[in-house]
Amino acid sequence: MKSPVLFCVLGTLILFVTLNVYQTASWIPYPSATFTRESFTDFVSKAVDIQNNKKGEVEEEEEEEKQLSNDVEKGPPIDIGRLKHHGFDHRVAGLSCPAYPGLNEAHYQQVQKEITYWRDIPADSLTTSPYQCAEQQQTKKYLTFEPDEGGWNNIRIALETVVAMAVVMGRVLVLPPSQEFPRMSTHLGYDDFYHLASIQSELASLEVITFQDFLEREVVTGHILADPVTGKAIQPPGGRTDWNGLLKNYESAKQGHGSTLWNWWRGVATPLLWDYGECIAVFPEPTGSREDCAETGGWRYTTEEDENRVQRYLMQIEAEDAARMQKRPNDKRPAWAVRVETYNNRPTPIDAPPVQRMGETLAHRSKLCIYNHTLQQEPVLHAMGEQIGTRFLVHFYAFLFLEDWRHDVWLKRFVRDHLRYVDEIQCAAARVVAKLHEFAHDDQNNPTGSYDTMHVRRGDFISFYKQTVQSGEQLYEDHVKQVIAENRTIYIATDEQDKKYFETLGRHNKLYYLDNFKDLLKDVNPNYFGMLDQLIASTGDVFIGTFYSTFSGFINRLRGYRSQKAQLPGYELGGIKSYYTFGDKGLSYARSMMLNYRSVRQAFWTNEFPVGWRDLDYGLHEDSIKR
After folding, report:
1. Which residues have CB under 8 Å from 17's CB, separation 6+?
2. Alpha-carbon gap, residue 284 to 294, rounded angstroms
3. Where are the domains of the chain?
4. Less packed terminus of the chain by CB within 10 Å, N or C?
5. DSSP alpha helices (H): ranges in 491-618?
């Protein structure tokens, strides 16, 4: 009889501490979403009553607490409109895959834990944009965007950046119409690949709607963006609100239906003219009085002083650069290159002052694109996808700078823990990984069934990036032989159709490709195969990738997430056991760059950087993370 009472007391204390932490840390609970300060307060109050009055039997107390907990977790129903809802038992913590014929259930369950790199941090679900007032509901503001005009992984990079911007801005994210993506067999939307409907119920920080719902609910009704001359509602071209299936991302706004839709919309919404090659997007912490929230529609706007403050950070960095160069009169490199070098294996502390963190994020850029008072007031902002200086082919963490370090790591955790491929893809990858362990297993030499992985990009790289081109013999002699032992099992993700290319490698190692596991993938959408390759390739003990490939880059970020969770060798500095291949000796510096800490630098898309995964759980207690 004592145990339930003790748990109740401890739970009550933990919840009171949580409320106090959020009150003093200026992390803003969202008032009307799934998790609210009021719902937690009610839960605490009822828990205290149970403890003080000791009414009922223990079983009744436990049932009441369980029901209260469910109320907090589930929250009010979310209107997902036309967003797709995937049928798997999706949850934040862990992975729950249905049993699969031919796989040992216990082993399969263990593999699901192995490939799970994300974590469930309930406190993160309470945190919202620094620009949202906790005291009242906000008038809705929106962020629309065009898909990147490149291949899937370029599209993914831009998506992550835009979603992260919507979260930190507190804006509703409007998804583009479903469209044709390169090398995919049908028209698809982002909600085909991500649990965007579920994310809304998981977090207070993000709301997502489709472009069709946005046009029909907000635009043609005149709720927002009325014609400045007539005052009437704005109508889309031809009065069409359903553009699904009509666009091709690689046409962008240059031709076809994309030209019709996006050129019209660019003239309606306020364009977000941020060039990631010239500036970093800075989000100052607003210091205005919360008493102003009632007059601003529930928004906390930055002041002129807030914006001047972050500009002074840049001025200080420039002054420090100049002082550093005065001590190196014979160094002909630009000052930024010398600054970037100072971070090699010396990462800036997670909670360092803003000026120090900005110095590392800035890299070669010399400007700040500030999310200022003017932009904050705009009802709709629009990000363009065409390559005209505003294409977001940049990792979100190398572009977005949040002045408050706590919001910075929270945003990085959001992408890690929530913006991940749908469970259908994750579970299919788990099936293949389970089989790979089985194939690699050897009672004496490899009892754990470990294996290594590679990504070999050929295809268009043979023409576009000739520096990466090499023969199959060179691949083995100059790269694989150096880091992967003889007879090891290797899984290879590749676009090379002629497997003779790997004959030399195959004489020394046991090779497997996705094709070898077709019997495990009969029910999987073929459009998911590229994502499957990434997830599987991220699980090897050693990974060898192709430099310049965003496909390889994302594999390395996934490996970084897993390395941090498992605390693998080198995790303290964000190093991972990954290598890059190259044909041109001029790229030899890339071979082992991922073993160490390197700060972000141009060209950002060529590879990923440890700041995107290193020490993201800093400041969190382990018992605040669900398993």
Report:
1. none
2. 21
3. 1-77, 122-128+138-417, 423-624
4. N
5. 503-506, 529-537, 550-566
Alpha-carbon span 562 to 433, nearest angstrom: 15
DSSP state of 480: I
Q: With beta carbons less than 8 A apart as the criterion, state whether 399 and 393 touch.
A: no
175 touches 63 (CB < 8 A): no
Helix (H) or strand (E) holding 370: strand 367-370
C-beta of residue 422 within 8 angstroms of C-beta of residue 524: no
pLDDT at 461: 87
Determine the Cα–Cα distance for residues 598 and 363; give it in Å rounded to an integer. 11
Return the structure tokens found at 597: 């800490």
Q: Cis ω on the peptide bond leading into residue 428 (within 30° of 0)?
A: no
Where residue 102 falls (left for φ over 0; alpha for ψ -120 to 50; beta otherwise) is left
**Mean pLDDT across 20-45:** 35
Topology, domain 423-624: Rossmann fold (3.40.50)
pLDDT digits (tens, 9 = 90+) for 304-355: 999 999 999 999 999 999 999 999 999 999 999 999 999 999 999 999 999 9
Summarize the confidence of residues 39-45 as an average pLDDT: 36
- Average pLDDT value for residue range 214-233: 91
Token couple for 354: 């803003």
Q: What HEC string does 220-280 produce? A: CCCCCCCCCCCCCCCCCHHHCCCCCCCEEHHHCCCCHHHHHHHHHHHCCCEECCCCCCCEE
